[in-house]
Amino acid sequence: MSENVNEEKTDEIISEVKTEERPKKEKLIKRIWKQIKRPFGFIKRKTEKPREFMRKGRAGAMILEMVLAGQFWAFGPYETLLDKVPFAICIIIMALIWAVFAELLNLVIKLIFGGGKRCKSYFFISWFAVCGVNIIANEGEAIPAALGTTFVLVLCAGIIGRVTWGLIRTKRFRQVFSYVVLVLAIAYAGIFGYCFHNDIFGDSRVDFYNGINHGSGSSVAGFSSYLENGPYSVATLSYGPGEEEDIVTDTVDFSVYDYLEDVDDPLTAMTRGVSDYDFSETPVKGRIWYPEGQENCPVFFMVHGAHVSTDPSYLGYEYLGQYLASNGYVVVSVDENIINELSTENDLRAVLLLENMKAVFDLNETSGNPVSGLIDPDRVAIGGHSRGGEMVATAYLFNNLDAYPEDGNIRFDYHFNITSIVAIAPVVDQYMPVGRSVELSDVNYLLIHGSNDQDVSIMMGEKQFNNITFTGNTDDYYFKSEVYILGANHGQFNSEWGRYDMEPTGFLNTNNFLDEADQKLIAKAYIRTFLDSTLLGDDTYISLMSDVTAYEGDLPDTVYITNFEDTNMVAICSFDDTVDIVNSGTGASVDVTGTDCWTIEPYVRGNGGEGEDYVLSLSWEEESDPVVNVSFDPVDISEGYLSFGIADMREDTEDLTEGLDYTVTLTDADGNTVSIDQPVFVYHSLAVQLYKDDVFFGTYEYKHQIGQVRITPDMFSSGNFDFANVTGLTIATDGTEAGEMIVDDISYGI
User: Fold this and answer.
1) Exposed, middle or buried: residue 596 (CB in 10 Å: 0-12, 13-18, 19+)?
2) Helix 387-399 vs helix 346-364: angle between axes, to the nearest 10 degrees?
3) Contact between residue 214 and residue 548 where contact means Cβ atoms under 8 Å apart
4) Phi, psi of 238 (to 5 degrees)
5) Where are the alpha helices (DSSP H) in 482-612?
6) Quick one: which of 40, 240, 426, 736 is 20 to 30 A from 167 by CA?
7) Bridge partners (DSSP) listed for residue 469
8) Are 428 and 387 within 8 A, CB to CB?
């Protein structure tokens, strides 16, 4: 019993001690917190008058914050209303719209918390608007930088507004503190404005990669002259429904497409309300360049994509028109601004192109006009840029159909002899006939895309490239080629579009672009070579389509990554449509050693996401020996080649000054081998800075683009190897450092 009493007393004593310690701890915490608050309290007391002065200017802060938000978003209504309303009025309209959102936010806060926060609501909405347009322009990249820089900008706008309005209200001009923060705010706003309106920041990534020793700069005889204007004098004429045109054409009625009446977007409804266009009288309009005094010329129809409809985008391809026409082509650039202005889909873009082709061919067969007899209707190519680049594949599909896929009551009757398609920086699948991607066969196809495209940021057209197949059911020869160009953007392929791919332009980094003249020269070189081969049968420079190395001396100095496939190419091993990573459906077997992991996965192109093309992917830790071994039935490349696609997938490559270190080994049926180091220079992932935030904060976007490696017998000196019976391919890479690589499309050709 006494023991229990002693235990109870002990517990009471411990409890009393703890009770005494708790107030001591609480007092200690309060003393520490008081010491922390002391300097802030001092600042608060000393700045009471300036802060009261700043509170007097809250209305000015809210006004300037809304004007700032309106200024960044004014391009929307300005373009929506087709430039018919002054830009300053558009700023006011957007400022009022954002003010409404701020008042709604303030109302919500008041309903939830019982008290409004109007000034803070205006600040938050302005920050949301300015940061939002920055993130949109940056396509979701560099979000932390966008949040920080725009927060400070809106804060500075608020300070400038407060001080200015406070001075107006109080007429107190001795507020030193306010002047200090005003000067700091103006300084930051000035720096932001300077950076926003100038394109002088960051080093050129093109110059960096050009500094890597990747080729001899060799030239092909005659190619430099080939890039110049040709011997023919060029004439131009316009056609369209207006009396001011050189040739007056009829309109076409697109009102039969019922979905045009469905307008869910209020901005589209607003544009249609102020537009002078009418789908029941869709203009058939364009510009023609042609060689004077010639007849039965091959013809190339070119179509622009989505852009501001008040700009004459179809005139932006004059450089192509002049160049090709001087070399014997008729070039027709089609005006499809009605599609841009009234916001319709790529199916109608395709129909409008075909209607323009029909009108031009009718003129060609009618005497008494400048186009009469000018065109050979059996040598026809079509090309497009951006959405026009997607559309030309759809137009080729529609050309061979008898009815509109979405409505069989709308009949087609075109069936022109189109043999070739050119796609410049195209999108893909914006229109899918009856919900399916466009798949074509037995047609020549050229795809051109740039690494610095800030509109179509990945090579989306590669899906269409892969969806073009060669059946082998004809004796005709077909090929498809793609080229990926470091430093090329979206707009410089069109003179009317230029350097800026997105609005607002001030967030974009354009300092590391190719010069516009160089970008156009590349387009001219590839398009003419492609057309000469497919329309004229002139293959003098067709090797450019598969390997740029021999032409580097005459083309602008940058990185070109190419892929090529023709009717003579036979697949050995592709990783599409299979989950068996060891045995392919064509009889080839794959084995990978010295890696941390290897598998089949979708091909990821930079930050644009996954495609529908599957590749062999392997990754390894440092101090490894990664090797890909592919065995297959004997193939004869004695007069041909063996090829594969390869890309480095690492994302820490912005400072690497050498190419991917790899070795290719071939094995013949007798077990003999031949090897070669780096048969084709393969760049590491291309690190680009598309936005000014990237430059200021040192971030990069990495472009992973598969390049084709071609192995030919003349690369080796061995006399014992049997190139008529090749049975194996080995690709080994340096595993000193950890890395990742993809391999695809192992094929051979004759």
Assistant:
1) middle
2) 60
3) no
4) -110, 155
5) 516-531
6) 40
7) 441
8) no
